[in-house]
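User: Can you predict the 3D structure for this chain?
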Amino acid sequence: MTALAHAALEHLTELLGARCLTDQDSAQRYGVDWTKVWAPAPSAVLLPETIDEVQQIVEIANEHGLHLVPSGGRTGLSAGAVAASGELVVAFDRMNKVLDFNAYDRSVTVQPGVITQQLQEYAEQQGLFYPVDFASAGSSQIGGNINTNAGGIKVIRYGMTRDWITGLKVVTGKGELLELNKGLIKNATGYDFRHLFIGSEGTLGFVVEATVKLARQPRNLTALVLGVPGFQEVMKVLHAFQSELDLTAFEFFSDKAMAHVLAHGVSRPFDTDCPFYCLLEFEQVSEQTADQAMAVFERCVEQGWVLDGVMSQSLQQLDQLWQLRERISESIAPHTPYKNDISVTIDKVPEFVEAVDTVVQDAYPDFEIVWFGHIGDGNMHLNILKPEALPKEDFFEKCNNVSKWVFEIVERYNGSISAEHGVGMTKKPYLGYSRSPEEIAYMKAVKRVFDPNNVMNPGKLFDL
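Assistant: Here is the predicted structure, written as structure tokens:
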């Protein structure tokens, strides 16, 4: 460590005391996310408790030419929170309080370290609902959700994290505190910088406070799991149900995904084996709603779009049916999956999936492809499982080829290389498949305005 770095460490230790951590265990714990490509190597881990401390950390970083990496629940899948090059990790675990609740506006103000599930439970205690939901809700933090504009299983009805943030306090790369939009629903006073920070992956500044809008609680959620003969039929089923019902979710998964989940101990929903499965959810607010759902189901069966199906009759059965979708990632994890999180417009999904299947299977016929995702918003999760006899190094080398082929198809269909997981370091080389050179140039220009010394999460999204 240089003398300059030692001086910076002294300043940080003066500021934070025992909350400035330099031991190897802390570096390994806080310097990573769920990606395993880059080894964590931060110079120190900082645990601020106040906005003022965050501002001082940023000022020290600017003074000494240091780099800062934000750390939330460390559940990211793009290496956006990995500190691999001696950066300082700023972990928001101690800024984890609910600060205020406004019953009239149905909003809650929280610090960035609040766990997503904690916010969901707080909303429920107020008789309300925070609808952004996904598998890592029990450990992800609101600050991280905002930085990646997290989506999940309810987007078809409720939208992304962006749609629920009415105000932000952020510390920029200069150390300045900005209060953005102040919780307002309507505010026509020029540029809304709030939306620049949402999805910015901590490259412009740190979210230190958020005002979050809440919704009414859904009533009598009911799920249907349907077996369908092909991907075209998945789309027809989606259209048929959306024409009659306001769906809160529409998920899909392949027979291969189903096989892994069943082998993992989840109960089979019905006896018929099907190439694809849909899980759709709606509010059964009356008997008429249930009758509508059954009428659409019967029409889909008559058309040959659905081969079999089951509808939940209790909260317990609702949970059991959701296990079929929510435990896919867990069930395929032992097979070292290569994962990709991609999206196209909904109408292009069938031909897009067919194009990806073809290019991967032609090149690597021994690779098992497992599809699942949020078909109702065009977001698909491509998972390729490592053949047992193939060494990891060889598998990942081949998957680099797959990434290029897949992203070329994404570009052809005007899609996104990252629907909800962010870019980070993992997808940084491929940003040009979704963003034009002109867009990337403007993004870099915005970065320089808010973070002129490149203090904030450098090397993520793009390189300056």
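The first strand starts at residue 20 and ends at 21. The chain has 15 helices and 18 strands.
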